[in-house]
Protein backbone atom coordinates (compact mmCIF):
# COMPACT_ATOMS: atom_id res chain seq x y z
CA UNK A 1 0.00 0.00 0.00
CA UNK A 2 1.57 3.32 -1.04
CA UNK A 3 2.39 5.87 1.66
CA UNK A 4 0.40 9.09 1.37
CA UNK A 5 2.25 12.33 0.74
CA UNK A 6 3.07 14.43 3.83
CA UNK A 7 0.55 17.05 4.89
CA UNK A 8 2.17 20.04 6.64
CA UNK A 9 0.76 22.96 8.56
CA UNK A 10 2.97 26.00 9.10
CA UNK A 11 2.52 28.11 12.23
CA UNK A 12 4.72 31.02 13.30
CA UNK A 13 4.22 34.10 15.44
CA UNK A 14 3.45 36.28 12.39
CA UNK A 15 1.04 35.55 9.55
CA UNK A 16 3.40 37.05 6.97
CA UNK A 17 6.21 34.76 8.10
CA UNK A 18 3.84 31.79 8.13
CA UNK A 19 2.85 32.54 4.52
CA UNK A 20 6.48 32.89 3.47
CA UNK A 21 7.54 29.59 5.00
CA UNK A 22 4.47 27.85 3.56
CA UNK A 23 5.38 29.01 0.08
CA UNK A 24 8.98 27.94 0.58
CA UNK A 25 7.84 24.41 1.47
CA UNK A 26 5.44 24.32 -1.48
CA UNK A 27 8.27 25.31 -3.81
CA UNK A 28 10.69 22.78 -2.33
CA UNK A 29 8.19 19.90 -2.09
CA UNK A 30 5.50 20.49 -4.75
CA UNK A 31 3.88 17.07 -4.19
CA UNK A 32 3.21 17.75 -0.52
CA UNK A 33 0.13 19.45 0.86
CA UNK A 34 1.05 22.58 2.82
CA UNK A 35 -1.45 24.67 4.81
CA UNK A 36 -1.07 27.85 6.84
CA UNK A 37 -2.35 27.83 10.41
CA UNK A 38 -5.25 30.18 11.14
CA UNK A 39 -6.54 30.15 14.73
CA UNK A 40 -10.19 29.23 15.03
CA UNK A 41 -10.46 27.49 11.67
CA UNK A 42 -11.50 23.83 11.24
CA UNK A 43 -8.78 21.20 11.34
CA UNK A 44 -6.86 20.79 8.10
CA UNK A 45 -6.01 17.19 8.88
CA UNK A 46 -2.28 17.99 8.80
CA UNK A 47 0.08 15.31 10.06
CA UNK A 48 3.23 17.42 10.56
CA UNK A 49 3.54 20.90 12.06
CA UNK A 50 6.41 23.26 11.21
CA UNK A 51 6.49 26.01 13.81
CA UNK A 52 8.21 28.96 15.38
CA UNK A 53 6.63 30.40 18.54
CA UNK A 54 3.20 29.06 17.52
CA UNK A 55 -0.14 29.80 19.13
CA UNK A 56 -0.65 26.87 21.58
CA UNK A 57 -4.18 26.38 20.22
CA UNK A 58 -2.53 24.81 17.16
CA UNK A 59 -2.22 21.50 18.97
CA UNK A 60 -5.91 21.49 19.94
CA UNK A 61 -7.05 22.57 16.51
CA UNK A 62 -4.97 19.95 14.67
CA UNK A 63 -5.52 16.63 16.48
CA UNK A 64 -4.01 14.48 13.70
CA UNK A 65 -0.45 15.78 14.11
CA UNK A 66 2.17 13.06 14.38
CA UNK A 67 5.22 15.27 14.94
CA UNK A 68 6.28 18.89 15.21
CA UNK A 69 9.36 20.50 13.68
CA UNK A 70 10.77 23.68 15.19
CA UNK A 71 12.30 26.32 12.91
CA UNK A 72 15.22 26.87 15.25
CA UNK A 73 17.57 25.14 17.65
CA UNK A 74 15.92 26.40 20.84
CA UNK A 75 12.54 24.80 21.61
CA UNK A 76 11.60 26.66 24.81
CA UNK A 77 8.79 28.56 23.04
CA UNK A 78 6.97 25.39 21.97
CA UNK A 79 8.01 22.60 24.36
CA UNK A 80 5.53 23.66 27.05
CA UNK A 81 2.46 23.56 24.78
CA UNK A 82 3.08 20.44 22.73
CA UNK A 83 0.95 17.41 23.71
CA UNK A 84 2.64 14.81 25.89
CA UNK A 85 4.27 12.13 23.82
CA UNK A 86 4.32 14.04 20.54
CA UNK A 87 7.77 13.90 18.91
CA UNK A 88 9.39 17.33 18.66
CA UNK A 89 12.36 17.95 16.39
CA UNK A 90 14.72 20.92 16.45
CA UNK A 91 17.10 22.23 13.83
CA UNK A 92 20.64 20.98 14.24
CA UNK A 93 22.72 23.94 13.13
CA UNK A 94 21.11 24.65 9.70
CA UNK A 95 23.74 27.29 9.04
CA UNK A 96 23.50 28.91 12.46
CA UNK A 97 26.68 27.56 14.08
CA UNK A 98 29.03 29.50 11.81
CA UNK A 99 27.03 32.70 12.29
CA UNK A 100 27.03 32.34 16.06
CA UNK A 101 30.71 31.48 16.20
CA UNK A 102 31.41 34.61 14.15
CA UNK A 103 29.23 36.65 16.51
CA UNK A 104 30.97 35.26 19.60
CA UNK A 105 34.38 35.91 18.06
CA UNK A 106 33.36 39.51 17.42
CA UNK A 107 32.45 39.73 21.10
CA UNK A 108 35.87 38.40 22.08
CA UNK A 109 37.55 41.00 19.88
CA UNK A 110 35.46 43.72 21.52
CA UNK A 111 36.35 42.38 24.96
CA UNK A 112 40.09 42.42 24.37
CA UNK A 113 39.96 45.78 22.58
CA UNK A 114 41.75 44.42 19.54
CA UNK A 115 40.57 47.17 17.21
CA UNK A 116 39.04 49.74 19.54
CA UNK A 117 42.05 52.12 19.67
CA UNK A 118 42.40 52.03 15.90
CA UNK A 119 38.73 52.90 15.40
CA UNK A 120 39.19 55.93 17.65
CA UNK A 121 42.43 56.92 15.93
CA UNK A 122 40.89 56.63 12.47
CA UNK A 123 38.33 59.30 13.39
CA UNK A 124 41.13 61.59 14.57
CA UNK A 125 43.59 60.93 11.77
CA UNK A 126 46.16 59.46 14.19
CA UNK A 127 48.81 56.92 13.15
CA UNK A 128 50.00 54.81 16.06
CA UNK A 129 50.64 51.08 16.48
CA UNK A 130 50.03 49.13 19.68
CA UNK A 131 51.59 45.96 21.00
CA UNK A 132 49.59 42.81 20.29
CA UNK A 133 47.31 41.50 23.01
CA UNK A 134 48.35 38.59 25.19
CA UNK A 135 45.62 36.02 24.56
CA UNK A 136 46.64 34.12 27.68
CA UNK A 137 45.14 36.95 29.70
CA UNK A 138 41.73 36.41 28.10
CA UNK A 139 40.61 32.83 28.80
CA UNK A 140 37.12 32.04 27.52
CA UNK A 141 34.38 29.89 29.04
CA UNK A 142 31.72 28.53 26.68
CA UNK A 143 28.56 27.33 28.42
CA UNK A 144 26.75 24.72 26.35
CA UNK A 145 28.65 22.33 24.10
CA UNK A 146 26.06 21.24 21.58
CA UNK A 147 26.60 21.80 17.86
CA UNK A 148 26.61 25.58 18.28
CA UNK A 149 28.62 25.87 21.50
CA UNK A 150 31.22 23.40 20.27
CA UNK A 151 31.67 25.38 17.06
CA UNK A 152 32.08 28.60 19.04
CA UNK A 153 34.68 27.01 21.30
CA UNK A 154 36.60 25.52 18.38
CA UNK A 155 36.74 28.80 16.44
CA UNK A 156 37.91 30.85 19.43
CA UNK A 157 40.45 28.21 20.48
CA UNK A 158 41.84 28.05 16.93
CA UNK A 159 43.02 31.65 17.32
CA UNK A 160 45.05 30.90 20.43
CA UNK A 161 42.65 31.91 23.20
CA UNK A 162 42.55 29.52 26.18
CA UNK A 163 39.09 27.95 26.04
CA UNK A 164 37.18 25.75 28.46
CA UNK A 165 33.64 24.49 28.13
CA UNK A 166 30.81 23.43 30.40
CA UNK A 167 27.80 21.25 29.71
CA UNK A 168 25.29 19.19 31.65
CA UNK A 169 27.16 16.00 30.79
CA UNK A 170 30.94 15.82 30.55
CA UNK A 171 32.15 16.04 26.95
CA UNK A 172 35.42 15.10 25.32
CA UNK A 173 37.04 17.85 23.27
CA UNK A 174 40.38 19.41 22.37
CA UNK A 175 39.96 21.84 25.27
CA UNK A 176 39.23 21.38 28.99
CA UNK A 177 35.59 20.45 29.68
CA UNK A 178 33.59 20.60 32.88
CA UNK A 179 30.20 19.36 34.08
CA UNK A 180 28.07 19.63 37.21
CA UNK A 181 27.58 22.48 39.68
CA UNK A 182 31.16 22.57 40.91
CA UNK A 183 32.41 22.19 37.36
CA UNK A 184 30.42 25.27 36.36
CA UNK A 185 32.10 27.36 39.05
CA UNK A 186 35.53 25.99 38.14
CA UNK A 187 34.98 26.67 34.44
CA UNK A 188 33.85 30.25 34.99
CA UNK A 189 36.56 30.93 37.60
CA UNK A 190 39.20 29.99 35.05
CA UNK A 191 37.83 32.54 32.58
CA UNK A 192 37.64 36.22 31.86
CA UNK A 193 35.17 36.02 28.96
CA UNK A 194 31.88 34.16 29.36
CA UNK A 195 29.97 32.96 26.28
CA UNK A 196 26.47 31.57 26.88
CA UNK A 197 25.24 29.06 24.29
CA UNK A 198 22.99 26.96 26.54
CA UNK A 199 19.47 25.75 25.80
CA UNK A 200 16.86 27.41 28.01
CA UNK A 201 15.43 24.88 30.45
CA UNK A 202 14.08 24.95 33.98
CA UNK A 203 17.61 24.15 35.16
CA UNK A 204 19.36 26.90 33.18
CA UNK A 205 16.85 29.73 33.61
CA UNK A 206 18.46 32.55 35.59
CA UNK A 207 21.78 30.70 35.62
CA UNK A 208 23.81 33.81 34.82
CA UNK A 209 23.26 35.68 38.04
CA UNK A 210 25.22 37.54 40.70
CA UNK A 211 26.64 34.37 42.22
CA UNK A 212 27.90 32.91 38.94
CA UNK A 213 29.28 36.23 37.69
CA UNK A 214 31.21 36.63 40.94
CA UNK A 215 33.37 33.67 39.85
CA UNK A 216 34.32 35.34 36.55
CA UNK A 217 37.71 37.00 36.66
CA UNK A 218 37.56 40.78 37.36
CA UNK A 219 37.06 42.98 34.31
CA UNK A 220 35.28 40.12 32.57
CA UNK A 221 33.07 40.25 29.50
CA UNK A 222 29.70 38.58 28.86
CA UNK A 223 28.50 37.33 25.46
CA UNK A 224 24.95 35.94 25.23
CA UNK A 225 23.92 34.14 22.04
CA UNK A 226 21.29 31.92 23.71
CA UNK A 227 18.15 33.19 25.48
CA UNK A 228 17.33 36.21 27.59
CA UNK A 229 15.90 33.96 30.28
CA UNK A 230 19.39 32.74 31.15
CA UNK A 231 20.31 36.18 32.50
CA UNK A 232 19.19 37.85 35.69
CA UNK A 233 19.29 41.32 34.16
CA UNK A 234 19.53 43.21 37.45
CA UNK A 235 22.59 41.17 38.42
CA UNK A 236 24.25 41.72 35.04
CA UNK A 237 23.63 45.47 35.27
CA UNK A 238 25.04 45.50 38.81
CA UNK A 239 28.20 43.70 37.64
CA UNK A 240 28.60 46.18 34.79
CA UNK A 241 28.11 49.21 37.02
CA UNK A 242 30.57 47.91 39.60
CA UNK A 243 33.20 47.25 36.93
CA UNK A 244 33.34 43.53 37.64
CA UNK A 245 32.14 43.20 34.05
CA UNK A 246 33.98 45.48 31.63
CA UNK A 247 31.28 45.05 29.02
CA UNK A 248 28.80 42.77 27.31
CA UNK A 249 27.53 41.78 23.87
CA UNK A 250 23.89 40.70 24.23
CA UNK A 251 21.67 39.26 21.51
CA UNK A 252 18.66 37.78 23.32
CA UNK A 253 16.32 39.19 25.93
CA UNK A 254 13.37 38.17 28.07
CA UNK A 255 11.25 40.79 26.31
CA UNK A 256 11.86 41.45 22.62
CA UNK A 257 12.13 44.05 21.24
CA UNK A 258 14.10 45.25 24.24
CA UNK A 259 12.04 48.05 25.91
CA UNK A 260 13.34 51.57 25.29
CA UNK A 261 13.74 52.18 29.03
CA UNK A 262 15.77 49.04 29.71
CA UNK A 263 19.06 49.78 31.57
CA UNK A 264 21.13 47.97 28.94
CA UNK A 265 20.51 50.77 26.46
CA UNK A 266 22.13 53.33 28.74
CA UNK A 267 25.39 51.48 29.43
CA UNK A 268 28.14 52.46 27.00
CA UNK A 269 30.03 49.20 27.42
CA UNK A 270 27.00 47.12 26.40
CA UNK A 271 26.22 46.36 22.76
CA UNK A 272 22.66 45.20 22.10
CA UNK A 273 21.75 43.36 18.91
CA UNK A 274 18.19 42.34 17.87
CA UNK A 275 18.45 38.54 18.18
CA UNK A 276 20.47 38.10 14.99
CA UNK A 277 23.46 36.03 16.12
CA UNK A 278 22.09 32.92 14.43
CA UNK A 279 19.40 33.40 11.79
CA UNK A 280 17.93 30.28 10.24
CA UNK A 281 19.18 29.72 6.69
CA UNK A 282 15.97 28.85 4.85
CA UNK A 283 17.38 26.47 2.25
CA UNK A 284 19.21 24.43 4.89
CA UNK A 285 16.16 24.37 7.18
CA UNK A 286 13.90 23.24 4.33
CA UNK A 287 16.32 20.46 3.42
CA UNK A 288 16.80 19.33 7.02
CA UNK A 289 13.10 19.27 7.92
CA UNK A 290 12.09 17.76 4.59
CA UNK A 291 14.61 14.93 4.81
CA UNK A 292 13.45 14.09 8.33
CA UNK A 293 9.82 13.96 7.27
CA UNK A 294 10.76 11.58 4.45
CA UNK A 295 12.46 9.30 6.98
CA UNK A 296 9.44 9.36 9.28
CA UNK A 297 7.17 8.58 6.34
CA UNK A 298 9.31 5.50 5.73
CA UNK A 299 9.07 4.46 9.36
CA UNK A 300 12.71 5.29 10.03
CA UNK A 301 14.16 7.37 12.91
CA UNK A 302 15.25 10.95 12.31
CA UNK A 303 17.87 13.01 14.15
CA UNK A 304 17.18 16.13 16.13
CA UNK A 305 14.39 14.73 18.32
CA UNK A 306 14.05 16.63 21.58
CA UNK A 307 14.22 14.81 24.90
CA UNK A 308 11.25 16.34 26.71
CA UNK A 309 12.74 15.50 30.11
CA UNK A 310 15.81 17.61 29.28
CA UNK A 311 14.18 20.35 27.20
CA UNK A 312 16.56 19.99 24.23
TrEMBL record:
It comes from the Bacteria. Residues 108-277 form the D-isomer specific 2-hydroxyacid dehydrogenase NAD-binding domain. InterPro entries: D-isomer_DH_CS, D-isomer_DH_NAD-bd, NAD(P)-bd_dom_sf. Keywords: NAD, Oxidoreductase. The keyword Glycosyltransferase does not apply. This is Glyoxylate/hydroxypyruvate reductase A. It comes from Alcaligenes ammonioxydans.
